[in-house]
């Protein structure tokens, strides 16, 4: 079966890598893909209509959408109108990520535990609410803001500044509506689940590292590393997630007539008082996917087709026991203005020990060398018999890779290591 993968980051590289292990996979096309992906045919990124036309004329049996933007643009609706098989939620369902106010209303309506919040369309009312509630408090731009629209404010002043920033137009239309919500204290986990309208099946748990610096310091990023499983998700926590988040999500989609055939990502805060959902994403997490898919023993083509065809109940997902760790190597300057162009060396040596290097921000130069092009450059991913072993393998691979100004956190999966150490 020919497959089209939409997107070109580390997440999509990991998806392609896993799809290629399936005997069902024929030619894999990627739009736009990235130069680190092997044995794929890259095509330019296009509008939903252009990609649907490509799929129709190239016998694509399955299209898999990685990022949220095409989903929010209605790529799934366009493909289905033309009778083409695609994995992902419709435009209406993608609002669960595209609008935080929509997601909040959905959670409240269907009893999914989440931080208390209010929605505002003018700065003065938002500020008055902040003054009433006090800090710490969280300010969120309603729309897609490339991960930058969330201000976790430790003081009232920071929150007020955050509100003014949103309404100043810094996030464009995404900031015209603002949510102010209760600060939840706890440990976060990334919960991914396949859903097809009648069945919902969780994937292995994982945890992301959002801050740039070791010890979770400095500004937020797209994610500096991930590992799976997340020890904070104990059996008791899984039970709560299944009952209070996943089952209610499925029921909510059914009641609201949202056609959700894809992967739902719930950012879950595990607090002393129970769990709370911080956000929904309507796609795989990046870099969580790199770690999670490395642990999947089942055939991913079969699973994605089953989701798209509403036959998820017919597949069983099998997971390897070995943990996986993904360390993101970033460009100098990230998450601010980055330095591009440095030549990357040591990629083959890094993979010699069994690690897999997923590309996210590289290009090939005229001499065929990989050079730095994006903020998050590589996701170096390894499995091990223990978390410590996986960490050691991932960092051994990281240390084989060099370029001028390369940066990574040195404490990925540190939480899991400390927890095990303490146990
Ligand atoms: P989001 O884009 O909604 O995931 O928010 C980005 C990050 O901000 C999350 O990963 C959390 O670390 C933090 N965050 C978001 N909402 C809250 C909240 N209500 N309480 C505490 N931290 C939050
Ligand atoms: N790693 C966070 C996200 O994919 O949104």
Characteristic terms for this protein:
D-amino Acid Aminotransferase, Chain A, domain 1; binds glycine; alpha+beta; 423 residues; Rossmann fold; Dna Ligase, domain 1; binds adenosine monophosphate; 4 domains; 14 helices; single chain; nine-stranded mixed beta sheet
Question: DSSP strand (E) fraction?
Answer: 25-35%
Give the CATH level 1 class of the largest domain. Answer: Alpha Beta
Rg on CA atoms, Å: 21 Å
Find the count of extended strands (DSSP E, 2+ residues): 22
User: Alpha-carbon distance between the termini?
Assistant: 47 Å
Overall tally of structural domains: 4
Q: Give the ligands present.
A: adenosine monophosphate, glycine
Topology overview:
Elements: E1 2-7, H1 10-19, E2 28-32, E3 41-42, H2 48-57, E4 60-65, H3 68-72, H4 75-81, E5 86-89, H5 91-98, H6 100-109, E6 117-120, H7 123-133, E7 137-141, E8 150-153, H8 156-167, E9 178-182, E10 187-195, E11 200-202, E12 207-208, E13 211-213, E14 217-220, E15 225-228, H9 235-256, E16 260-271, E17 274-281, H10 288-294, H11 300-308, E18 324-330, H12 347-352, E19 356-359, E20 362-364, E21 370-372, E22 376-383, H13 387-400, H14 414-422
Parallel strand pairs: 1-2, 1-4, 2-3, 4-5
Antiparallel strand pairs: 5-16, 6-9, 7-8, 7-9, 10-11, 10-16, 12-15, 13-14, 15-18, 16-17, 18-22, 19-22, 20-21
The structure holds adenosine monophosphate and glycine.
